[in-house]
Write a structure and sequence with these properties.
Blueprint lengths: L1 E2 L2 E14 H5 L4 H4 L10 E12 L4 E4 L9 H6 L8 H7 L9 E3 L5 H4 L3 E3 L5 E3 L5 E5 H8 L15 H5 L3 E4 L3 E4 L2 E5 L8 E7 L2 E5 L22 H17 L3 E3 L8 E7 L2 E6 L3
Parallel strand pairs: 4-5, 5-8, 8-9, 13-14
Antiparallel strand pairs: 1-2, 2-3, 3-4, 6-7, 10-11, 11-12, 12-13, 14-15, 15-16
Amino acid sequence: MKLGKFELHLIEDGIFHLDGGAMFGVVPKVMWAKTNPADAENRIELVLQCLLIRTGQHNIVVDTGLGDKMKDRFLEIYSVDRTRNLRGGLEEQGLKPEDIDLVINTHLHFDHCGGNTVLGPDRRPVPAFPNARYIVQQAEWDEATNPNERTKASYLPENFMPIMEAGQLTLAHGEQEVIPGVHLMPTSGHTRGHQMVKIVSQGETAIYMGDLIPLVSQIRLPFVMSYDLYPMVTIEVKRAFLRQAAAEHWLLIFDHDPKFTMGYLAVENGELKLEPVSA
């Protein structure tokens, strides 16, 4: 779709499944299953939604999905289907990996940066986008490269260390405009260095929210993931962000919702509701 003078393209890197209870934290299953039904293994379906921003001068990818380096056991545990994938979606837009100028990772969990790298001829991971600058928050890099017992399963070095070794990594320090109209918005909450991406052009604004609000059902403040390392920070950031997004008519882009990819907020009976928009 058009956003001012920019083009926004949502590109799937397939689907996967995560435990529904973990995705909704303290919220009982009887409540979240109404909008996100679980399979026999108690897993809910999540889409891997990447964003391509075409500014006319730059081609920017926000988050890169799972990528194709996973082993069979991983594919089984998470019930992964990558019939649609980021590389194929970029080809549909007439783009080769060499055409991408900038990759922004909201954070470095495996489902958001797995496509940062691919296996080279020697079966070692190398940057998937050889001409791109990769941007992540310094705080996120620090957590990813020094994981603890709880976080190490989410941070897979093969997804990000080759970027640093190739000299393509840029570490951001807080909020900044990386190119005209494309801004980093740190949020913390999910991880200490999590960030959203704000796109502004000709008076229109869109927000790729990453895992601050991955599903439409999680617009409700108490609906916070167990995966969030700082859940009360998530709630307070959501409270302020949603208020501003509704007041300023921001287009919200969801990274994991299998039914609704984006929309605007409206107030209905005193509660925030999403008015979906088709890509």
